Amino acid sequence: MNTTTPDPTHDADDEHTTGHVYDGIEEFDNPLPGWWKWIFVASIAFCPPYWIYYHGGTPGRSIEETYSVALADNTRLQFEEIGELQPTAETIVKYMYEDSWRRVGSIVFQTHCVSCHGRDGEGKVGPNLTDDVYKNVTHIEDIASVINNGAAAGAMPKWSNRLHPNEVVLVSAYVASLRGMDLDGPRGPEGKTIPPWPELTVSDEDAPADDS
Amino acid sequence: MATVTSTDVPQGGSGDSHAATDAGRMEQFSYDDSIVRMFAAATIVWGLVATFVGLTVAVLLVLPGISSGLEWINFARLRPLHTNAAIFAFAGNAIFAAVYYSTQRLCKARMWSDALSRIHFWGWQLIIVLAAITLPLGITQSKEYAELEWPIDILIAVIWLFVFGGNFLMTLIHRRERHMYVALWFYIATIVTVALLHIFNNLVVPIGTWASIPIYAGVQDAFMQWWYGHNAVAFFLTTPFLGLMYYFLPKAAERPVFSYRLSIIHFWSLVFIYIWAGPHHLHFTSLPEWASTLGMLFSVMLWMPSWGGMLNGLLTLRGAWHKVATDPVLKFYVVGVTFYGMATFEGPALSVKSINAFTHYTDWTIAHVHAGALGWNGFMAFGMLYWLMPRIFQTKIWNEKLVSLHFWIGTLGILLYIVPIYAAGLMQGWMWRAMDDTGHLMYPDFIETTQSIVPLWWLRVVGGLMYFSGVVMLGVNALMTWLHRPSEYEVPVISAPRLSDEYHAPGKPRQSPLEGVAVLEMSKKIESFAWMGWHRRWERLPVKFTVLVTLAVIVATLFEAIPAFLIRNNVPTIATVKPYTPLELAGRHIYVSEGCYNCHSQQIRPMVSETKRYGEYSKPGEGIYDRPFQWGSRRIGPDLAREGGKQSSFWHWTHFENPENVSPGSVMPSYVHLLTEDMKYDAIAPHVQAAAYLGAEYTDEDLNDTAAVAMRQAERIAAEIVEQGGPAKTYEKQAVALIAYLQRVGIDLFAEETPETAAEGTASEADSEEQTAMGAGDTADDQS
Q1: Is residue A75 part of a domain?
Q2: Is A57 domain-assigned?
């Protein structure tokens, strides 16, 4: 490739080399491909408007603000129907019998509780929740306070600042509903047998429409 | 080839017809090809090691049980070994082979010092061996691709900058070719920038010989790390390989490079723009939003500069496609450059925030980097090696068919690796964020999301095995070719004129086509500028060129780094965030040593699906004592940023013993060694002193009676474990320190000013902190 001819052409294109030769390597003097150049320019032009849109000072566009709105929407979607629940016996019993809300409780349980209490509440590091004996629970509302405040020297962590108050009520209802399934767990019965949960008090209109 | 003799004479003026005017005294010399042979052999050896360790970690993910009891081969210790071997050992030696072969020929000069070349070779191999020993032992800084501890870091800096860089620059200065070819520009950018990145990301306070903590903490450490991490990809895996491409591809194709002008534009835009893009690894984290936006925008602008390299590679093959069909070397290049184009389109796409929100922490990233590493780096290196083999071993390749087989099995291996892993990324990413119509997580159990992609991980093992067997074929072929080498290598003597001190432009000055045409003087200037004569001048001045490249990367860096470090509002302080106790600090060191960040992130993003799963999102002020930051980049296991208080101490104990005890289906290996090895309380003090030196507040007792303070906390935790039904005397073991740390992670945000008060009101406390953080974030935005 000793190309020292003044105007080397290749393959009869009208391409010209620059005349540079390095260890036999030549370079064409081709212009920048148009599409390449214009996409490059466009990608640069895209930036100032994007910056101004998100960082121009208009409120509501930052990541945190977007998140706050999304979180509020989500909370509304989840709990608009039921409002803010109180962890009372009556409320917990009520939601034990509302399948769709008990399912929400089961999702909370699957997210946070299964690593100690087992996938079905049969117990693992934490006690079995499906039998009739309980360590720290005498009344049904005690379930919510154990969840909120923890128990057994931190073996049961406190969840009050991790869960929405409604989630505490709904997961309490789910846990209460596990009683009586009497699954076999790795741990023996712990604590004392307690009286059955209170009956569902059917209060006028908002009686659950269906089921168990 | 190899017949270059003294007949090869005066190309001195790089092919211009008036070379004679520019030529000085004729000199005779020869090229040092034995150093190329050494680096080529090392490339193949480390290529085998890197892919084998890669295959091993892929198997460990699907069969985590097989490492049980052997903590040195746990996934989290071997994965850094795999990445370091692939990047610094395999790709590194390939780069050096390319640089030593091509630089000598492009400069018409032997490397400046044979001694430095050899110190470089053996020094680099020593670094790799030290890495291979220290990483499995748990000696690590736990910053991705910067895991090696400070003594090795110093060795790297010396070997890279002074030995390699010095030898290279002196060769440029003593060159006999007037102008520097584009490959050399890319080598210059590589040497300068990698040195800069390496040094500034590894500034640490040593704790003994084999431990250290970075001078940066939390958000700032994250910023520095990904400035480094991203540009390690840019300047270790991209620019030197572009240099390699610019030399070896036209050589193999015997075609001129498509466009000199494109080389110039894409080189400078690449060098200048790349350096800004690092923060795109930290979208939606507690990094200030302005930095994240800059990272995204510069990544978008990087698309075309990257594709400039791809175009110059692929379009150089115009008119040579018939050769591609028959020449396996060109086949490797075509696939390599194509993967480069694919990866550099995907990179900007993944840096767009809304796409990144989905793909970050998933296997998508793993697929992306393997498309780049296996396709671009691997195949460019293989193409180069097969082209070099007959030339450096001076005999024909042992088995041509085996080369083709390597190409096909490698290509299929890449596809079988990346396609399932892209699918795994999409699938798990979707499962993590899937919410049902009542606003609840559809897959609340994390392990379910992992288990669903395990079959795809098995396919990766198959793909990886195919790719690995290709590298074995390369090894066999190289070994057999080497065995057939001549008894003595021919060393051709080359003569070229020495460069005169003054440059005389060849021929008459360039005639502008606008000469005499009735246009504005301005247009003539623009036309003349576009002709790139100004750049031609730079190509004659290696020192000036090096300075300009250095300026391009430094200025861009400072534009981002100075605000990130100086604007206080970027990291609003949170009053309740306090330094770790001595025991927690020791536990954190275990977390770092074990490489937990390889599977667990510690950074919850402000997204509903994420905060529902893990808890309140991470705030910048929470990380001010985190040296190094441990945000991670892939969630093979769940995020741990709010792990403190989430499980009982006994739960952690039994989980370390065997994760299956409490998490059936978990892919985490057993960490039973933490339950059996004694906790060394006397070794904690230096950690506390180093943290105190960097500004964390500790009492005199913490500093002077460290072991006793730590022991008291350990005994409290051990008592808890007993109460919770666990074994006695756990305070003697290492796990207790790690548990102390894990119980502390992420709880300070909710802490009351005075500890031990009632739990009531913590939620509102958290709310108000959030307000502060948000408000301050806005201020930062305004200032930028």
Answers
A1: yes
A2: no
- Within a domain: B530: no
Distant-in-sequence, close-in-space partners of B416: CB < 8 Å, separation ≥ 6? B459, B460, B462, B463, B466
> Which structural domain range is residue B685 located in?
582-747
Per the domain annotation, does A46 fall within a domain?
Answer: no
Measure in Å the smallest separation between the Cα of A203 and chain B Cα atoms.
Answer: 25
Which residues constitute the domain of residue A156? 63-193
Whole-number Å distance between alpha carbons of B282 and B123: 34
Query: Residue B737 to residues A82, B43, B86, B376, B658: CA-CA distances in angstroms?
Result: 44, 41, 33, 43, 18
In a domain, A202, yes or no: no
Q: Is a pLDDT exceeding 50 seen at residue B768?
A: no
- Looking up tokens 């958000």 gives B219
Is the residue at B538 inside a domain? no
Helix, strand and coil percent figures for chain A, each rounded to 5:
40, 10, 50
CATH code for position A103: 1.10.760.10
Does residue B781 surpass a pLDDT of 80?
no
Distance CA B456, CA B418 (A): 10
With a CB-CB cutoff of 8 Å, which residues 628-687 of chain B face chain A?
642, 645-651, 654, 661-664
Contact A36 B311 (CB under 8 A): yes
How far off is chain B from A83, nearest CA to CA, in Å? 14
Collect all residues with Cβ–Cβ distance below 8 Å to B221 and sequence separation of at least 6: B143, B214, B623, B626, B627, B628, B629
Residue of B nearest to A76 (CA): B439
Tell me the pLDDT tens digit for each residue of B121-130. Answer: 999 999 999 9
Residues B434, B610: contact at Cβ < 8 Å? no
Token pair for A7: 């105007």
**pLDDT(A6) > 50:** no
Cβ contact B184:B172 at 8 Å = yes
B379 vs B374: CA distance, rounded Å: 7
Half-sphere exposure of B247 (CA within 13 A, CB side): 30
Q: What pTM was estimated for this model as a whole?
A: 0.88
Confidence of residue A25 (pLDDT cuts 50, 70, 90): very high
Query: How far is A130 from A193, CA to CA, in rounded Å?
Result: 12
* Helix H or strand E segment including B315: none
Residues 6+ apart with CB under 8 A from A31: B259, B261
Per-residue pLDDT reduced to its tens digit, B596-615: 999 999 999 999 999 999 99
- C-alpha span between B747 and B110 (Å, rounded): 61
Nearest CA to CA, how far is B136 from chain A (Å)? 30
Residues A78-98 have pLDDT tens digits of: 888 888 888 888 889 888 888
H or E segment at B28?
strand B23-29
Neighbouring CB atoms inside 10 A of B231's CB total 24
Structural domains counted in chain B: 2
Assess: ipTM above 0.95: no
Beta carbons of B283 and B296 less than 8 angstroms apart:
yes
Residues B458 and B589 in one domain: no
Is the CB of A36 less than 8 angstroms away from the CB of B307? yes
CA pseudo-torsion sign A136, A141, A143, A146: negative
When pLDDT is averaged across residues B450-461 and rounded to a whole number, the result is 97
Do you find a cis peptide bond into B628, omega within 30 degrees of 0? yes
Asked if the structure places residue B285 within a domain, the reply is yes
The residue out of B483, B509, B527 marking a domain boundary is: B483
Task: Tell me if B391 sits within 8 A of B1, measured CB to CB.
Answer: yes
Q: Last residue of a domain, which of B483, B514, B538? A: B483
Of the pLDDT bands very low, low, confident and very high (cuts 50, 70, 90), residue B753 is low
> What's the rounded Cα separation, in Å, for the pair A105 and B419?
37
CA B44 centroid distance within chain: 20
Question: Alpha-carbon distance B672 to B69, whole Å?
Answer: 7
CA dist., res. B308 & res. B330, Å (int): 19
Q: Residue B576 falls within a domain, yes or no?
A: no
CATH of residue B98: 1.20.210.10
